[in-house]
Amino acid sequence: MKRREIINIYCDESCHLQNEQEKRMFVSCIYCPKDLVSKISNDIRQLKQKHKIWKYAEIKWTKISKSRQDFYLELLNYFLSEPNLHFRTIIIADKTKLNHEIFGQNHNTWYYKMIYQLVEYVIAQKIDKHKKNRDDYEYNIFADKKENSSQARRALLVTKDCLQTHFAKPFLFHNIASHQSEIMQLNDFLQGAVAYFNRGLYKNKNAISTKKLIIDVLIKELNISLNKKNYNDKFNILVWEAKH
Length: 244
What we know:
The model has no long low-confidence stretch (mean pLDDT 84). This protein is α/β, with parallel strands linked by helices. Helix 1 runs antiparallel to helix 2 (69-81) and helix 3 (107-130) packs parallel to helix 4. It is globular and about 50 Å long. The relative contact order is 0.21. The protein is 41% helix and 18% strand. A 6-stranded mixed β-sheet has the order 5-4-1-2-3-6, with helices on both faces. The protein has helices at 37-50, 69-81, 107-130, 150-167, 182-198, 209-222; strands at residues 5-14, 25-33, 86-92, 137-144, 172-176, 235-240.
């Protein structure tokens, strides 16, 4: 029997709370073959140790500072140069326009619909790019753990069922905390760059120079804008607008 390739997809969000002042929201994922997860995780830990950072210290966009600039630039270069790592983000331009009632949903359920949008594209793109059958792949989907309510668990199961029905194949869904996964932390790092740019902080006179430099490198190396839809395989962006 032909061995199926297993793809791990790590999903997270930023500014997801409905009552936050920030109107923009971001839902993102990073994905790679399961067989390479251990190697990539170890590579990131070695980068930390090289820059005298505890190997289990959590990487977060909010922690970026001038004193660690060399580490973060090398981390970015690692992502850009590793052909098996891919990133996708959905920019929700204005979450204040969401009207959950008319769609018979709550904010938590809608969040998992966005996870579905992330993952559906990744799966379809993977099959199309490599001209393979959907049965050649299996998928593990890791969502950053937000809450453990029955409502949240139910929404996650609905997302799983929708994907399984759509692609006629099983999916494994997991809720994990970001500190448990270096790849999930890398997702936070890249998503943070997109959010920083789209929230107008990049052009702010008080912008953190290291964060600006990271964004400059991303834009230059990938030849993309961080606030526009693109079809870039390495760093894919979708801008999503609510329908009234």
